[in-house]
Amino acid sequence: MTKTGPLTFAVIGCGTLGTAIARGILDPLDKDSFQIKRLIATVGTEHSKSRVETEFSEHSSRVQVLLATENVRAVQEADVVLLSAKPVKRQEIFDVPGFRDALRGKLLLSIMAGISTKELQRLASGGDGDLERQQPLQAVRTMPNIAAKIREAMSLSTANLDMLTTENKKIASWVYQQVGQQKFVPESTFDISAVLVGCAGSLLLLAVDGLLDAAVAEGVKRPEATEMVMNSALGMMKLVPAGNHPSVLREVIASPGGCSIRALLELERLGVRSAFTAAIMKAAERSKGMSNS
Ligand SMILES: NC(=O)c1ccc[n+]([C@@H]2O[C@H](COP(=O)([O-])OP(=O)(O)OC[C@H]3O[C@@H](n4cnc5c(N)ncnc54)[C@H](OP(=O)(O)O)[C@@H]3O)[C@@H](O)[C@H]2O)c1
C-alpha cells in the first residue's frame, strides 16, 4: 500500500477488540498522521450487526456494518484490513472465493492470537508457494490487550521488516497508538512478549481479587475495597516506569516489624512469586505451540 490520503479501513470480525480499535481510529488521538475516510466492519450475526451500528451511531456517515457473507466486498473496498475474528475462523474466512484476490496489495493487520506472519502468508497465498515468492504479503501481526477499550493497551507488533514498506509500518503503528502504546518486536521473541501483554494483566487481576476477598472478610464493602485497592495499586505500579525497581520498592515499603513484611513473607511461604513465574512460562509454552501448529 503506497497511498497516504484518508484511508478506508475494514475490520473483519468487529467484536470486543475490533470495536475498541475501530473506535480508537475513528476518533484518533493523533489527528495529523492518518485519517479514516470510511470504516467497514463485518460480523457473524444480525445481533452483532445491530450492536456495532449502535456503538458507532455518531459516526454513521463513515461507518458501514456488514455481515460476514460480505467480507470480500469489505476487503475489496479497503486500503487496510484488520483481521480480528477468532483464530479458529481464519481458514473459513480466507477460503471464501475472492477473499485472497481482494487482499492483494493491501496492508493486512492481524490480532488473531497465535497466528504467525508465516501462517498469514500461507493463508493469503492459499498454499501457492510461487505466488508467495512473487507477492510477499504486507502483514503486521499484533498482540493488543483488552485495555484498548480505554486507550490503555500495550500492543506488540511484529512483521517481516525487510518486506514491509515504511508507510505501512507507520500506518500499523498509528492504528495501535490510538488505543494505547505500541512497539515492534522480533517474531523470535513475540510469543513470550505477547504473553506478557496478553496474560500478565489477568494474573495481576487474580491477585486483586484475592485482596478484595480479604477486605470483604474483614468487613469492608466490596465497592469501597475495590476503590482503595485499585487506586493504591495503580499509584504503586506507576512508580516502576518512573525508575523504581519492584524489589527495591518492596524493601522500602516493608518497614521493620511492620505489616507489609509479614504479608510478603506469607506470600513467599505460599510460593506465590514462583507460581507467577511458572504460570507465565506455561502460557509462553502454549503460545509457541499455537504459533508453530
Ligand atoms: N479479547 C482479548 O483480550 C484479546 C487480546 C488479544 C488478542 N485477541 C484476539 O483478537 C481477536 C478477537 O477477539 P475478541 O475477544 O474481540 O473476539 P470476539 O468479541 O468474539 O469478536 C469476534 C468477532 O468476529 C465476528 N465473526 C465471526 N465469524 C466471522 C466471519 N466469518 N467473518 C467476520 N467476522 C466474524 C463475530 O461476530 P458474531 O459474534 O456475531 O459471531 C465477532 O463480532 C481474536 O483473534 C483473539 O485471539 C483478543
Automatic annotation (TrEMBL):
Transmembrane segments: none annotated. Gene3D superfamilies: NAD(P)-binding Rossmann-like Domain, ProC C-terminal domain-like. The keyword Kinase does not apply. Residues 187-290 form the Pyrroline-5-carboxylate reductase dimerisation domain. InterPro entries: 6-PGluconate_DH-like_C_sf, NAD(P)-bd_dom_sf, P5C_Rdtase_cat_N, P5CR_dimer, Pyrroline-COOH_reductase. One of its GO terms (biological process) is L-proline biosynthetic process. NADP(+) binds at residues 12-17. Belongs to the pyrroline-5-carboxylate reductase family. This is Pyrroline-5-carboxylate reductase.
